[in-house]
Amino acid sequence: METINIIDTPKHVNELVKIGVWLTDKRSSGKIAFLQLRDGTAFFQGVVLKNKVSEAIFETAKKLRQETSFWVTGEIHEDARSKFGYEIQVEDLEVIGESEDYPITPKDHGVDFLMDHRHLWLRSSRPHAILTIRNEVIRATYQFFNQEGFIKIDAPILTGSAPEGTSDLFHTEYFDRDAYLSQSGQLYEEAGAMAFGKVFSFGPTFRAEKSKTRRHLIEFWMIEPEMAFMHQEQSLELQEKYVAFLVRNVIDHCKDSLETIGRDISVLERYTKTPYPRISYDQAIEMLTKSGMDISWGTDFGSPEETYLADQFDQPVFVLNYPKAIKPFYMKPHPTREDVVICADLLAPEGYGEIIGGSERAVDYDYLLDQIKKAGLDPDEYSWYLDLRKYGSVPHSGFGLGLERALTWITGEDHVREAIPFPRLLNRIYP
Ligand code: 4AD
Ligand code: MG
């Protein structure tokens, strides 16, 4: 007899199989017990008929407590009434680990309670579905960039640089000197692009932002591609192709998970069509002021502004060329305007805000050195980065997609904390 996973049961109809499972819920009467089972790969039902098993097994089945682990042996049958479509007709049960009173019951719990029990909550169907989709986004990311001829260059986590500004750095000690946790791998990816052409990184990044919003994590994962010999317009084409590819793959490979969380696939379909609309920062300001919002040129957008702008389109929208004063030092200056840089943020529909930040990079040594000084950074810390402009500097562009922001949008969740297994938030580093 084969030991299999629930996900593979459709290939074993009418066969006797053995599966290691946990109990999520149960219901029983005098003659029949319905066991809700999970094994990590999927959720399905076990049926125990009193007249088909020994008295002892039926009694064991009736007494099983939530989250008890056990081996279940039985025949796989089709079950058109259930969502999964198959069930197991139980013949034998062998308890592996008893369970104490499980804190997460099928009733409603508050968010703090669930987050305090995140290590257990991961077992429930909703987080399970969201994190399954996260895995698909990661898988599709590697597929996409491999297909496009990129190679993965890993950026360090411990660094001496602050590409995204010094206000939200996580400080740490590095033996007898200071170091910071990475805010972005970008500067290292730029070095990688000069060595390999097209590169990307995927790793954790850290921002000590005192923001308690639905969009901010303290630790989040970013995908950062960087392309040599590429101007901003080609980078935007790559970005929309990538995002559409992610959504396409989630629709095609995560139907069950999307159904579990109640995400409307017809809405997601809209995001698989490219090109995405593009507006300039100037146009965005005009749209916002016309709508009666109190914002002037030169100000960065907050959540209400991003939501309003995104609501004017039914696809993600690129906002191009923000004021130089509110963007990092490394962005390419506009060829004819002093006040803006060649960059774009991609705003997700449905109020999810910025999911990508990217730009063409400044290539001129003197300009960049000047910008580094103006940003209050120590040029010595960046001399390696400046070297990239000394030895065959070329036009290049790149961007960063926040995995959890993108996943929150794709899954339609309310809060970015749902999109990562163990969120680090302003007030949470447990569990
Ligand atoms: O716009 P950001 O700060 O851009 C960079 O870090 C660039 N160096 C990227 C690059 O060009 N290689 O961050 C990029 C993305 C944002 O668009 C957002 O999706 C996500 O990272 N992000 C966050 N996600 C969750 N919590 C936070 N606190 C985030 N801050 C940024
Ligand atoms: Mg940004």
UniProtKB/TrEMBL annotation:
Pfam (any one): tRNA_anti-codon
Domain of life: Bacteria
PROSITE patterns with a match to the protein in the record: AA_TRNA_LIGASE_II
GO biological-process terms attached to the record: asparaginyl-tRNA aminoacylation
Family: Belongs to the class-II aminoacyl-tRNA synthetase family.
Cytoplasm is among the record's keywords: yes
Record Gene3D superfamilies: Bira Bifunctional Protein, Domain 2, Nucleic acid-binding proteins
Domain Aminoacyl-transfer RNA synthetases class-II family profile: start-end pairs: 131-431
Keyword entries, A-Z: Aminoacyl-tRNA synthetase, ATP-binding, Cytoplasm, Ligase, Nucleotide-binding, Protein biosynthesis
Main location class: cytoplasm
Keyword Transport on entry: no
Native species: Paucilactobacillus hokkaidonensis JCM 18461
Catalytic activities: tRNA(Asn) + L-asparagine + ATP = L-asparaginyl-tRNA(Asn) + AMP + diphosphate + H(+)
Quaternary structure, from the entry: Homodimer.
Places the protein is found: Cytoplasm
GO cellular component: cytoplasm
Name of protein: Asparagine--tRNA ligase
Enzyme class: ligase
E.C. no: 6.1.1.22
One annotated GO molecular function: asparagine-tRNA ligase activity
